[in-house]
Each structure stands twice: as C-alpha cells, then as structure tokens.
Amino acid sequence: MSGATHSARGFWPVMGQAFLWAFLLAVGVVVLYPLLWMGLGGFKSNSQIFDQPFALPQSWSLENYFSAWRGVQGYMVSSLLVTLVSTVATVLISARAAYGLTRTAMPAKPLITAFVLGGMMLSPTVALVPLVRMLQSLGLYDTHWALIILYTAFRVPFTTFLIRAYMLDLPRDLDEAAMMDGASPGQIYRRIILPLCRPIIVSCVVLHILFAWNEYLFAMIFTNSPSVQTLPVGLTSMMSKHGTDFAQVFAAMTLSALPIVIIFFLTQRYFIRGLTEGMAK
Amino acid sequence: MAELTLRQVRKTYGSMEVLHGIDLDIPSGSFVVFVGPSGCGKSTLLRAIAGLEDISSGEFAIDGERMNEVAPSRRGIAMVFQSYALYPHMTVFENMAFGMRIAGLKKDEIARRVTRAAEVLQLAPYLDRYPRALSGGQRQRVAIGRAIVRDPKVFLFDEPLSNLDAALRVATRIEIAKLKQAMPGATMIYVTHDQVEAMTLADRIVVLRAGRIEQVGSPLDLYRRPANLFVARFIGSPAMNVIPGTVRIGPEGARLDLATGGGLRAPFPLDAGLAGQTVQVGIRPEDLRLAEGEPLLVGRISYIEQLGEVQLTYIEAEGLAEPLIAKLPGVLDLAAGASIALTADAQSLHLFGADERSLRPEPAAAVPEVTSARS
Ligand SMILES: Nc1ncnc2c1ncn2[C@@H]1O[C@H](COP(=O)(O)OP(=O)(O)OP(=O)(O)O)[C@@H](O)[C@H]1O
Ligand SMILES: [Mg+2]
Question: What are the residue boundaries of the ABC transmembrane type-1 domain, all occurrences included (chain A) (predicted)?
Fold first, then answer.
C-alpha cells in the first residue's frame, strides 16, 4: 500500500482540488492582470510602455494621473449625475411596481406582470431608431435627461423582477398584521415591506450603478457634446484625441474604473445575492 | 363589550364554497373556540370575522352594526397569528407600539400602554430586542401583547400555540386563560386542533365540519350530549367507540342488541318506530370497565398503550372491523393476546339514528348562551 492511499482523502480528490485551485488562480490572473497593467501603465512614460511593457514603472510620478483627471473631470460629473438620478428613479419605480404586482388585487395581474417583466426581453438595439426620433422630437436629445430616462426605462423590468421575487417570499401575515394594526396600503409599503426589502434594494442599487456607469451604446448615440457625455464615451474620444499618449489614456481609464471597483468591493455581498435572487421564480 | 352575529355567512373561492351559510351568535365577553378537522374552514371563518377575507354573502355584525364592508382596523378586533407575524425589523417595543403610532396616539400614552402590557406578559426585559432574538414562547407573548395594547373589543387567535413545544403550550394556555379572566369584557375567539385547549379554555365550543356548524355548546354539553356522531367522535380523546346495535322494544322498555353479541337496556326511552332498526351505539373509552358479572363486550386485547395512570387497551371484538378502545386503570395487569370482558353503565351510552343524529331527547331546561341560530 502506498502512502497516498493511506491518507484519509486519497490521491485523486487531492489532485482534483489542486487542479481546481490552479484553474481558479489562472482565471483570476487573466481577469486581474490587465487591470493592474492598466493602472501601472498610468505611471509609466509612453516609451517605457512600448519598450518594457511588463516592467514596473521607473518612477511613481502622478503626473499622468493629474493631467488625465483634468481631461476626465467633465465626463466624471456627467456619469455621476446620470448614474445617481437613474439609480434612484429605477429603484423607486421598481419597488413600487413590485409591491403592486405582489400585494394588490388588481385585475389581470398575470398579464400585467408578464407585460412588465417582458420588458427584459426587449433588446436596446432594436429600439434605437424610434428612440432617437422620439427623444429628438421631445427636445431631449443630447441632454443628461435622455440617458437618465433610457437607463431607467430599460432597467425597470429587470429590477422589478428581482424585487418582486424577494417580496413574494415575505410572509403575507406581516401585511395582514399591519392591516389589523390599522396601516393603510401606503403605510404597509413604506413601514413594513420596504424596510424588509433592504437587502434586495441594495443589490439592485449596486447592479444599476454598475450598468449605468459602464453603459456605452445609448451614451454614444444619444449624447454629442462633451459636456453631456459620460465616461465610456468620453474615454473613447480621449483615445482618439491622445491616440499616441497611451500613458495618459491608461491613467484616465484607471480613474474612471476606480469608483466602480471600490463600490463593487464594498458591496460584493449584495451584488452576488442580487444575481442569485429571483432565479427560481 | 361586543356581541358578534353571523347570519348565513358564506365564503366562496372561485366556484368552491368553503363556508356554507354559518349562523352564529357570540355573546359579549365569551370565550368561544372553533374546532374541526383540518380544512373545515376554521381559519376562513376567523379571517372573515377579522375582515381579512370578504364575506361572499350573508351578514356579519358587531353589536348590531353591519361589518361586512368595514375595514379590519375599524372593527375593534385584534388578531394573534399562528406564525406570530411580528415585524422582524422592529424591536419588541416598536412591534407593540406600531398600531398605536399609526393611530396617532401620544408618545407617553404609547409608552405607558406598552410598559403595562410588557409587565403583564413578563416581557419587560426584552423590550429592546428584535424578534429574532426571542424564543418561541416570548414571540408568542409579544404577539399577544401587540393585540392587547390596542384594547380591542374582540380578540381572535388562530392556533396560537401550535408552534410551541408541549410544556410551553401548557404554560401559555394557562396564561391565555388568565388573560381572559383579567379582561372579562373582551370577547375571544380561538381556533385550535387541540382538544385540551378547546375543553379548558372555552365557554362555548363551535364544532365545524366542511364549512358547516355541527354543534355549539359548552365543553361539557358537547362531551355529554353530542348532537351527532361526528361531534361524538370528534370531542373526547381517544375517540368514542361506535358499535352497531338493533333496537328491541319489549314490555319492560327498549333494549339494544349489540353487533358484538351483548345487549343492554337503552339509556332513555326510545320511539316505538325504531323497533327492529339498526342504531349506532357510542361508548366512550373511559366509560368501559372490566366486567365482574355479565359482560357487555368480550374480545381479545391486541395492543396496550400504557400511560402510567391509565392504559389504553385496544380490543378486537367479533363483528367489528375497528378495534375498540378502553381506558382502563394503569394498575390492572393486562397483556396483549389475552381475552377480556368489559361492561358499561347503560346511562353512559350514546345512541345515534340512521341519519347520524343523536336519539337523546332534548333537555327541557338549560338554554345555551351561544346558539347556532340554525338548530
Ligand atoms: N385562498 C384560497 N383559495 C382557495 N381555497 C382556499 C383558500 N383559502 C382556503 N381555501 C380552502 O378553504 C378550506 C378551508 O380552509 P381553512 O384554512 O379555513 O381551513 P382550517 O379549518 O383553518 O384548516 P387547518 O386546521 O388545517 O388550519 C380548505 O379546503 C382550503 O383549501
Ligand atoms: Mg387554519
């Protein structure tokens, strides 16, 4: 008998475990290294990026970052504004819709539910042309409002879907107890249901921030002037402007990714829950 | 003070009728218990009274005032849920205060009432805790506290003790009985599966079956004079033994010949029209005892459940598919497989006709307080 078979866990399970770890490590490197490389690139000079792409920067000068910040500043403000307003609007509308879909006795509820949730199936690209015409005729083309409205409209179905699934799991007895306590439907919503939905609301906020911060298609098509454009579009135009100054482009990219990375790490618990919630319903 | 009146109350879900015309008067200050098999409509009836379910037809009134369309919170009713339904994100204090806050009571009045309820229910040390940090019994007491702070006229309990373990159930049952004593004016309606809860708590028991009232009466009434075979089998544990018998009317009065062989005098005079007819003879397990002289029943012991004080003896008798059960003193030396001879007093028998209704003549006196208007 060999030593391996004497051990409690055996040879193959241990090997399997080792392979799994190696695989996950490799995936981690593939995902993280480019980000790190981008961040480090911001400290290098253009020539070093080409000559020694994998070396550490020679000096840790923040100069590239400062000048990138000056370029990115305006886009950052637009992104913050659009993300913030559309997040608040989406989550408020979705929570209220989910409450209606789960707690009221409205007629034809399955149909309305299907209609609202069916919005998830709608591909943004299909709707582009009519949307452009519509927003142009409303005079909203090339304004922050265009993006706020589109982000809200396109994300309400999915967000409603997540919150609805969570609300379906909240016991009815709580509503009924509150009803016996004299609470109106509005009070039940604000004082019982909404506070209890906090975990899923946080998840939805995080998911929406991730979406709105990184959204490219709408931002590119519905905004034109630099004062209105958000970061993803702004970065592309920076790239075409400073096409040769990669150090500065890397610094700008790092700056624009930073807020989202921080938010993600602070809230990843909720983010993961948001993804797993609602799948069963 | 609140008197509840139900007239022909029906409830349908889609095309299925769950309550088939309930007529019931519940006097002010009484403790009424709804019992019945699972799915018979106890919760539905209770929720209709609370206003959580609409009544499909019929009328429900409190103190003569029609309540069908009145919102639950305006009926002066508090309800304790089987699941407790405490608000998980509020402390014990906030749970009890919620209704009063909604009603816009003053802060110090709210605090005064919550503190008093907490003292009565021994919850004072837990007022700042969240429900998740309480034991089942404590949660149940918070749910009761939430009901009493509002000072309602009517309390509804839907199987409030079914989530508690046996010891706690007894303790909480006694607390509910004390609560009732402390609030003689409040009307309480209580749903349970548990016979002991029904017998010990109730002034009046309402036996339901498949959406209809079978009988209304005091616990002893139901035990001693069940109106039909269903109530006879449902009240009392273990359930009453039922043996078919034939009526023979002779010069010295009516006699019964049991399917198992024995025979005895009828406990009360029987109509001559019953002569030769088959009736159902009910004998409670506790009314059976070992025969010294002429036995009424003979059989073979198939199984014994020894409970110490008593032993439940299962007996196979000739001519019966189901075993009979006798509740015999625990000290008797019995063994499975042995044969046994039993007897019972004629006065303890219950007789039911072909329609399963009791053949016992109605007593002249005793007008019951809670009446099913139908019967
Ligand atoms: N929302 C509903 N839709 C359709 N049928 C229902 C609904 N609620 C209850 N029922 C039916 O009504 C009948 C009575 O239910 P109810 O809950 O009142 O029974 P119960 O006597 O309380 O039973 P248990 O002792 O098990 O709690 C049952 O047959 C049940 O299936
Ligand atoms: Mg029930």
Answer: 76-267
